[in-house]
Design brief:
Aldehyde Dehydrogenase, Chain A, domain 1, 6-stranded mixed β-sheet, alpha/beta, globular, binds NADP nicotinamide-adenine-dinucleotide phosphate, 42% helix, 20 strands, 2 domains
């Protein structure tokens, strides 16, 4: 196979990364770059048998890994953070090469890995400490909860954030004493392989994290069958399939799925900052972000002014596929993604929507490059309004008041992330609480939420089940065990005491304990 790396690529040699894949087969996966459409390498394509072998290795490695004191696991993750920082340039090149995103967007991934890994390294000892909880009878009953690792956790991850989504959920799982198998998206295996190598260099033993590139449809079932817990990030359609597999195997699964993010501009919003935030929300990673802004609802008194500024600023964004820092917007990832974006925009325009700017494929920039696009007068019920477009496309709609804004924002099957803009932070917060989303930013699009690693993030409704970040993002990789030590007499009728009297005593005790705040 002829490999043709784009000019300016200065990242790690891809063949070396591919060589780390452990497989008994000889099938391969061809990887192309969205920057030019050219082949950049091939990696072994793992088989179901490879999945089972990897699971056995992971089970063996887990015993030793779990037995280490948490401080040693923390030390390895601290070292990993240093290596990520030291490999910034390699990581940026690699993420851009495989995803086609702009360099600044790739940098957000590095920052997220550093922030998330740092957060969990700091908190893991506290999250894993034995927790005392009230027993049924104070002093007599001592209850405590310990958190054990599940064992081997399987991760299935998408291409849109190939670095952070391949590793940021793995970190808390490892810190909790699990080992991990990651099935990365077919478009972006090298990034996952590189970051796994950094973890190995940081002191995480072989077998604790294995990357298995390959076809998700083929590997999903054997992976879910072989592991003790599953973490899936990807589309809602595939998430349902993974949930069904997990249900059949009775393994816990968290599902981070799609979105169709609303952004509300209140009457009192500061327009300049709001437009800056809306641009970032709509066009970061060329809109291929699960928490992207896809629908903007603007108070009618500000609508014209907002649209004018948004369109002017969107036209000023640089669209390019290069390894430089200057471009604002990069490429879509694939022909499939491009054709979805084009069909959403073209259908909306054919049905009466107004194209305020953009709406053009730009093959002169890159094979899948598409202009930042703003649509108005979008018919309710059109695909661009109701479905996840996952491209650099945003719709704007005037609304009469907060009530209409909330009703429209919540009129979606998704419930991942929203954004509210207001000159009054308290009112903004109150409005945010009315959005049916797992997370909402006030006066920012998404980054301040994402970067607040102590706050759990995740989806409601068709956007998923479970949370990442915060305590919830750690505890989901642990299996709690409660131990209750009863001193003195067991909770049973003493010899000679009739059951009826014992039942009445217990009933009275529960009422009393609650009344005096003992429970
Ligand atoms: P996808 O098609 O669902 O693929 C995600 C992963 O699932 C890939 O590794 C894929 O492998 C694998 N897969 C495909 N079919 C499978 C099956 N039957 N069983 C098990 N695994 C299977 O999603 P995508 O197109 O890569 O990513 C975009 C989607 O991810 C968007 O909807 C976006 O909103 C969502 N997303 C959500 C979050 C979040 O945190 N909520 C974050 C990022 C992205 P192949 O590569 O072989 O197809």
């Amino acid at each position: 196979m002829t490999v043709d790396l784009p000019d300016g690529y200065d990242g790690p040699p891809l063949a070396d990364l591919a060589a780390a894949v452990q497989t008994d087969g000889d099938e391969t996966l061809r990887v192309e770059t969205p920057m030019t459409g050219a082949a950049i390498g091939e990696v072994p394509a793992c088989s179901p048998a490879d999945v089972r072998t990897a699971a056995e290795r992971a089970q063996q490695a887990q015993q030793e890994w779990m037995a280490r004191p948490v401080s040693e696991r923390v030390e390895a993750i601290e070292q990993f953070v240093s290596l990520v920082r030291g490999s910034q340039s390699d990581l940026l090149d690699l993420v851009q090469l495989e995803s086609g995103k702009a360099r600044y967007d790739a940098m957000e991934e590095i920052l997220d890995v550093v922030a998330t890994a740092g957060h969990y390294a700091d908190r893991a000892p506290e999250y894993l400490a034995t927790e005392r909880v009230p027993g049924v009878v104070p002093l007599v009953t001592q209850a405590s909860v310990d958190r054990d690792p599940y064992g081997v956790v399987g991760f299935i991850t998408p291409w849109n954030y190939p670095l952070t989504l391949a590793i940021s959920d793995v970190i808390p799982a490892l810190l909790a004493g699990n080992t991990a198998i990651v099935k990365p998206a077919e478009q972006t295996p090298h990034t996952a392989l590189f970051v796994a190598e950094l973890l190995r260099k940081a002191g995480v033993p072989e077998g604790c994290l294995q990357i298995l590139p390959g076809d998700g449809e083929r590997l999903g079932e054997p992976l879910v069958a072989a592991v003790d817990a599953v973490s899936f990030t990807g589309s809602t359609a595939v998430g349902r399939e993974v949930a069904a597999l997990a249900g059949r195997e009775l393994v816990p699964a968290t599902l981070e799925l799609g979105g169709n993010g609303p952004l509300i501009v209140r009457e009192d919003a500061p327009l300049g900052r709001t437009v800056t935030g809306a641009l970032r929300g709509a066009f970061a990673s060329a809109g291929q972000l699960c928490i992207a802004t896809e629908r903007i609802y603007v108070h009618e008194s500000r609508y014209d002014g907002f649209c004018d500024r948004l369109v002017e600023r969107a036209r000023g964004l640089t669209l390019d596929t290069s390894f430089e820092w200057d471009p604002d917007v990069g490429s879509l990832v694939s022909e499939r993604q491009l054709s979805k974006v084009r069909s959403h925009v073209d259908e909306a325009v054919a049905d009466g929507a107004t194209l305020l700017t953009g709406g053009r494929h730009r093959p002169d920039v890159g094979p899948y490059a598409y202009e930042p696009t703003v649509l108005a007068d979008v018919p309710e019920g059109s695909a661009v309004a109701c479905e996840e477009t996952f491209g650099p496309v945003v719709t704007v709609t005037p609304v009469a008041d907060d009530e209409e804004a909330v009703a429209r924002a919540n009129d979606s099957e998704y419930g991942l992330h929203g954004s509210v803009w207001s000159g009054d932070a308290d009112q903004g917060r109150a409005l945010a609480r009315r959005l049916d989303c797992g997370s909402v930013c006030v006066n920012d699009a998404y980054i301040s939420m994402w970067a607040s690693t102590g706050a759990p993030m995740g989806g409601r409704d068709d956007s998923g089940i479970g949370r990442r970040h915060g305590k919830e993002g750690f505890e989901k990789y642990t299996d709690p065990q409660s131990v209750v030590v009863q001193r003195g007499h067991p909770v049973a009728a003493p010899a000679g005491v009739p059951n009826r009297l014992m039942a009445a005593t217990l009933s009275w005790y529960l009422r009393l304990a609650r009344a005096v705040g003992l429970r």
